[in-house]
Amino acid sequence: ALRELAPEAQKAGVILALENTISAEDNVRIMERSRSKAVLVYYDVGNSTNAGFDILKEIPWLGRQRIAQIHLKDKGYMGEGKIDFPAVMRAFAALDVRGFANLETSSPSGSVEADMRRNLKFIRDLIAQEFRKKATAIFEQNVTLLELGHRWAEEHLDFRIEVPAVPSERP
User: Fold this and answer.
1) H helix runs in the chain, sequence order
2) Which residue, 48, 95, 151, 162, could crosslink 53 as a Cys pair with Cβ 3.0–4.6 Å?
3) 128, 99 Cβ separation under 8 angstroms
């Protein structure tokens, strides 16, 4: 049935995303049998962890091009179960996964609003940390490249780059 529906979905610009409890490899077999780029994985870290799969191996193995969306969940509050969310977020960031990540969480306290706020803050803080690390690494890499470029120009082109001193503060 998926092989028949997938081409129509692709023509209409619709993604058919698979969310289940089978391995990434089994999901890819289904995707390949569909013969359509419209069939992708809706990767659920909770389902895959609970089914015994190594999510930190599955995420990079799937790659960005096979992941439609992400489900983030754990037992109880996020970050307090068995899923290593910092590592999960780094894995998704390394792939530069774009799109939606949905929180599918329980409400341990009984206050859905308070628990969702807590879980959302946890994930937002992880994303912010990863962004800061990436931005810092990019800045440091660019500074290093600039310094190397200056040295090369001085050595090979007899070219000096003068960096003006920062003016001192006025009294």
Assistant:
1) 2-12, 24-34, 45-50, 55-62, 85-95, 112-156
2) 48
3) no
Task: Please report, as a single letter, which amino acid is at residue 167.
Answer: P
Tokens of residue 160, six digits: 């000096």
Helix axes 55-62, 24-34, angle to 10 degrees: 20
Three-state DSSP class for residue 43: strand
> pLDDT (tens digit, 9 = 90+) per residue, 63-74?
999 999 999 999
pLDDT digits (tens, 9 = 90+) for 75-106: 899 999 999 999 998 899 888 887 788 888 88
Can you tell me the distance from the alpha carbon of 141 to that of 125, in angstroms, rounded to the nearest whole number? 24
**Residue given tokens 């992941």 in the structure block:** 67
Classify residue 170 by its DSSP letter.
P
**Number of other residues whose CB lies within 10 A of the CB of residue 151:** 11
pTM of full prediction above 0.85: no
Strand order of the β-sheet with 101-103 is: 16-18, 39-44, 67-72, 101-103
Closest CA to 97 of 37, 27, 42: 42
Helix (H/G/I), strand (E/B), else coil: 88: helix
CA distance 166 to 171: 15
- C-beta atoms surrounding 80 within 10 Å: 13
